[in-house]
Design a protein that fits this description.
Length: 202
């Protein structure tokens, strides 16, 4: 299924399990089913082939920022709404608002063969603003409690410039140990520029 959002200059396509994606009045909504996730444990040999999560992704060009406020209907540990970057089957990254495991937390996962996992800061309530940016071969993750003051979370690469230029970006939902959760994304914004400063709140 393809979906076009007026805020984005590229169409989005669904990947993974059915996320029941819908868009109305500036709000994108998706559903993660029971025990759906994308994570390759560093203590294990690989990704369970049955482990996947609903994704809605498109192909940006050049430098960009993708911004959205995410709201998660938390029901179980590690339920999350995600801004997602995909370069290859074992090269992808997640910026999440996650119940981790019993308090809403901004966390990041970068997968290069296997996944790492790092918590950033906790959040009051069930909403936070997330931002993923790219310049050249570099990606950056930021989050914000108010959509104005941005907190730096991560700077990383997922491969060379050729792979990075073909990256897909977009939205994901997950419920790794629960029975599912609903996630909404609003205040979606796309900018064709890298942030002016990574660590100064801009």
């Amino acid at each position: 299924m393809d979906l076009e959002l007026p805020e984005l200059p590229f169409p989005l396509r669904t990947y993974g399990p059915d996320g029941h994606w819908s868009y109305e009045d500036g709000v994108l909504a998706g559903w993660a089913g029971a025990r759906q996730d994308r994570f390759v444990p560093p203590t294990d040999e690989g990704l369970d082939p049955a482990s996947d999560a609903p994704r809605l992704l498109g192909a940006p060009e050049g430098d960009f920022q993708l911004i959205a406020r995410v709201t998660v209907g938390f029901a179980a540990g590690f339920d999350a709404g995600v801004l997602y970057v995909h370069v290859g089957e074992r090269a992808w990254a997640k910026l999440c608002l996650e119940y981790s495991p019993d308090v809403p937390t901004v966390c990041t996962v970068v997968t290069r063969g296997h996944s790492d996992d790092a918590n950033s800061f906790t959040v009051e309530g069930s909403s936070v603003w997330l931002r993923v940016s790219r310049t050249g071969r570099a990606f950056a993750f930021h989050a914000s409690r108010d959509g104005k003051e941005w907190i730096f979370a991560r700077l990383f690469t997922l491969g060379g410039e050729t792979a990075t230029s073909a990256a897909l970006i977009g939205f994901m939902t997950q419920s790794p140990v629960g029975e599912g959760c609903v996630v909404t994304f609003d205040h979606i914004e796309y900018r064709d520029a890298w942030p002016e400063g990574l660590r100064d709140g801009s």
